[in-house]
Amino acid sequence: MTLSTYHVLRPAWGRLTLAVLAGAGAAGSAVALAAISAWLISRAALHPPVLHLMVAIVAVRACGLSRGVLRYLERLIGHDAAFRILAGVRVGLYRRLEVLAPAGLADFRRADLAQRLAADVDAVLDLVTRVLLPYAVAAVVGLASVLVIGALVPVAGLTLAAALLVTGVLVPLLQRAAARRADGRLAPLRAELATGVVDLVHGMPDLLAYEAVENRRERLADLDARLTSASRRSAATAGVGAAVTALGTGVSVLAGLLAGAAAVRAGSLPGELLALVVLTPLAVFEIAGPLPAAAQRYATARTSLRRLTEIWSVPDPLSGKDATVPTVAADPLDWPAEIHAAGSTASIGTRVPHLKMAGVTAAWTADRLAVTELDLDLPPGARVALVGPSGSGKSTIAALLVRFLDPRTGRITLDGTDLRDIPAARVREIVGYLPEDAYLFDTTIGANLRIARPGATDADLLGALAGARLRDWVDTLPDGLETLVGEHGLALSGGQRRRLALARLLLTGARVLILDEPGEHLDDATAGALVRDLLQAAGERTVLLITHRTADLAGLSVHAL
Q1: Nearest to residue 420, comparing CAs of 533, 327, 318?
Q2: Measuring CA to CA, how many Å separate 428 from each of 384, 436, 542?
Q3: What is the C-alpha radius of gyration for the chain, rounded to an integer number of angstroms?
């Protein structure tokens, strides 16, 4: 899919049309106000009867009032349309990322994705309010002004038309040719700089250990210099556009003065209309003046749209069904979803599924396989430890079992049903995954848990915490479930963070639990106690424990990679 300007603007064409009409009315009122005022002053200098001026006086008042009202309506309707478009693009992008993550986003950095989701999407707002509306309004009002001036003094009308074309068309084209590289590189350079800063901050301990901080700082300084240079080139072209606009204004006024004076001398133009011919271009160029800058913003917005298109163009990582639950006479996945908490254990009855992988080959990228011809059997209630060195494909297996990724060859079945025939959302209701870097949000304990089940009561939350061996600790806290966990859960210890993430997983009601390196970054004693508590909290569920540790595997069936 190509995210073109047409696709972005199409949902709000009606509101945008109203905004353009209101804007043209406001700009037309401003031009008319200047023209009528010029005629009124010139006419009044001849001391005619006051009744001869009444129509012009009323028109001046009407234009002055309507300009403000129509400008307000244009801003109101235009920004309403822009924010609706912005919301549509952002929601659509979120939904696309939800489909792609994590397998489809392997080629993107997190900071770069954040930049696309923020700055690049915000560029859509500029596309509407600072590009489309100014150009449409200037086109309508400029054409009307050229026709009026041309009817009075053809030479002045042609000069005004030429100046408007130079300002609104030729200058942007020259700017685009001169600054194509500068403006086209702004968004990618900003994203690259943001990614570099995030990498530096997050990787600071390792970079300090390997004495690589200075090298990273030099790279960031080089990126900053390139971004500054591109910004300067962009600003320089904007300055040239402003200079040409001022020159066009002066030429139009001078041409109107000279041609108008000649027409008055020849008797083809009433003297009181000379001021109208001379001053109208000034009002017109107040509207047309921002066009070069608008064209430059359009170039930047197009680059941002191309970056957003790259996300929409990523192939879906899932090849099977992902929209509706298959309709069969007896759905083998129709188990009850309730969790029955009893002390420190949880039971979901006997309907735990049989999950099986047979001859599975899978890869995150096209050029490198992650697992090859893999067989793995997880009967109901099994306790299996998947062990192997880093890079052996353990996390890939977890991604396959929760349908973050579909196998290239082979089959994964759930009670005999191919996983590709089950919607991914349904699979993730049945197969729960606790990743190594399970995220905790900078909010309360209760809010972090309710991500798993938004309608859960406090009793449900406390039951899940009991299963994760955290309830006694939470009961000692002054704020209980309303205790803040800090950014990334830093107000908690490492073991508490992992247990809170486990409680969130237990709250989902999943029948199969996949626990990816639960003891990572913990000391041996804490990691061992955590693994034992995890297995006990799982109750009758199937558990797949992914680890590279060989200790604390008692009671588990070991599958080595």
Answers
A1: 318
A2: 19, 17, 14
A3: 34
Place of tokens 């430890």: 385
Q: What is the pLDDT of residues 328-369, one digit of tens each?
A: 333 333 433 333 332 222 333 347 899 999 999 988 877 778
Residue whose pair of structure tokens reads 């069904």 in the numeric block: 321
- pLDDT, average across residues 539-546: 88
pLDDT at 164 over 70: yes
Q: How far apart are CA 376 and CA 166, in angstroms?
A: 70
Tell which residue, 1, 11, 63, has the closest CA to residue 34: 63
Token couple for 558:
């070991």
* Best CA proximity match to 385, nearest among 238, 173, 552: 552
Conformational region of residue 487, where left means phi above 0, alpha means psi within -120 to 50, and beta covers everything else: beta
- Structure-block tokens of residue 288: 């047309």
Q: Which amino acid is at 330?
A: A
Count of CB atoms situated within 10 Å of the CB of 5: 16
Give residue 166's Cα distance to chain centre: 36
Question: CB–CB of 236/185 below 8 Å?
Answer: no
Is the bond preceding 326 in cis, omega lying within 30 degrees of 0?
A: no
Q: What is the pLDDT of residue 178?
A: 60
- Please tell me what DSSP assigns to residue 329: S
Sequence spans of domains, the chain: 91-312, 340-560
Sheet bearing 557-560, strands edge to edge: 431-434, 512-516, 542-547, 383-387, 557-560
- For 514, the enclosing helix (H) or strand (E) is strand 512-516
For residue 290, the cross-strand partners are none
Rounded-to-integer distance, Cα 252 and Cα 255, Å = 5
Half-sphere exposure of 526 (CA within 13 A, CB side): 13
CATH 3.20.20.80: does it fit domain 340-560? no
Per CATH, the number for 91-312 is: 1.20.1560.10
The answer to whether residues 518 and 545 touch, using CB atoms and an 8 Å cutoff, is yes
CA atoms within a 13 Å half-sphere pointing along the CA-CB vector of 94: 7
